[in-house]
Amino acid sequence: MCNATRTVSPEVCESFRDAIYACPKQVTSPEGGTSMSDGDDRRKHLEFIQQIVTRLASNSFAYKGWTVVLVTGLFALGSKDATPAYLLVGALPAIAFWGLDAYYLRQERLFRELYDAVRLRGETNSQSGEFAMSTTPVSDRVDGWLRTLGSRSLWPFYGTMVAVTIIAAIVAASRVSGGPQ
Known about the structure:
Blueprint: H1 10-20, H2 38-81, H3 84-89, H4 91-121, H5 145-149, H6 155-176
Helix pairs in contact: 2-4, 2-6, 4-6
């Protein structure tokens, strides 16, 4: 709270409130007491959004790990029996996790845009005590799901997994059919 009101006029406190949160205005609750200030509300709202972004980023890491485990396991099964079908099945989890990862990456980008909107413009719904978490107002600022599939953080990893799986299946099929060894 602003304890410097003896040396700083209330007008000065008002003018700097939004910029530095040094002298946040107290919000009166319907019961007559004071609740968190506008600056505290904004900071709490930003913390909520940041926690969501962190969770979404950890999902992406987990999907990449599961993709490696499943594709490697199917490679092991396919190489043991030298059947191209097992190897081609290995592309399915890679494609599925690619799609899921793109979805969560898009959600992460949406919440980053929401974070910026709240940070820059203070878009909170503090009057009702709720924090707006809908990304609909910022959805036009983020690429769609299909464009996110081609993201620099996704296509090199998943594209390589799918390509290696398909190439291994083609090599295994040529060995099974008696092609060049």
